[in-house]
Amino acid sequence: MPQEDHEIFDLVSALEAAEGKGTTFYSLLEVSPSASSAEIGKAYRKKSISMHPDKNRGVKDAEKRYARLGVIAKILRDIEGRERYDFFYKNGVPKWRGTGYYYERFRPGLITVLIFLIILTSGIQHIIQRHNRTRDLSRIERFIRLGKATAYGPKGLAIEGKRKVRVPSGGGPRGGGGRMVDLLVDANVFILCAGPGRDPVLLDESMAPYPLIKDTWAISLFLSAYSRVARTIGTGRPTTKSNIHGAPEVESSGNETSDNPANETSSRKPISQAGGQRRKGTTKRK
């Protein structure tokens, strides 16, 4: 790093310490960064009068401030010196780290790195999903074209009724050979699924839905976790009601019956009046 740059760094550090953080060579002279050399010279003469030590008696470091002003004006009026300062003025000045000047670099933390990786992997997954959809649409269109060509012939004249045809799946070399796929051709083209009792599946764009951002792993994982928590909160609390004394009791169904016969008997036993009830066929003792 050239010595001239060190001089600029030292001046910037001393200027901010004396005049306030963010003070620049241009703001000190009260000119714009696009000012010409003549405008800088005029601003320097005006500023040197107000900052002269004779007019600032008793002001701390008045002579240092005045000398610093002269050096700054000299750098800005020099073509090469101004180009060097403008470079650091636009891109930032390195920070002093005890043994030299070092550029202050951004050091992301663990959370920032994780967020970046989540966004990056989700973006890559979304791009792959869109690519796979384009590939699937191409295969669907190919099956439809081959199915109709096989069913209706080269002229493509539609024939009434359904026709079952077999076309190559495209797994062989140059799209031919390999496994065969059974199709059912009508006004539309259907793919016949293996296995008894399975209905034909219509070949159209609905078989390759457009991938959404929520289909990426990060959003899907978040939505799944959120739905589980919501279900747990919604079903984890029993419905309660309060009795006349204010104590909560669990609401139970009116169709429940007691498993204890004694309870059933006691519930059916009529309530007798005080003093008891006289039995029939008994004589009163004298």
From TrEMBL:
One GO CC term, this protein: endomembrane system
Membrane protein topology class: Single-pass membrane protein
Pfam families: DnaJ (PF00226)
Endoplasmic reticulum recorded as keyword: no
Domain J per the UniProt entry, residue ranges: 24-89
Subcellular location: Endomembrane system
Compositionally biased tracts (Polar residues): 252-270
Annotated InterPro entries: DnaJ_domain (IPR001623), DnaJ_domain_protein (IPR052606), J_dom_sf (IPR036869)
Stretch list, region Disordered: 234-286
Amino acid composition bias (Basic residues), ranges on this chain: 277-286
Keywords (A to Z) from UniProt: Membrane, Signal, Transmembrane, Transmembrane helix
SUPFAM superfamilies from the UniProt entry: Chaperone J-domain
Transmembrane segments: 109-128
Name the UniProt record assigns to this protein: J domain-containing protein
Source organism: Hydnum rufescens UP504
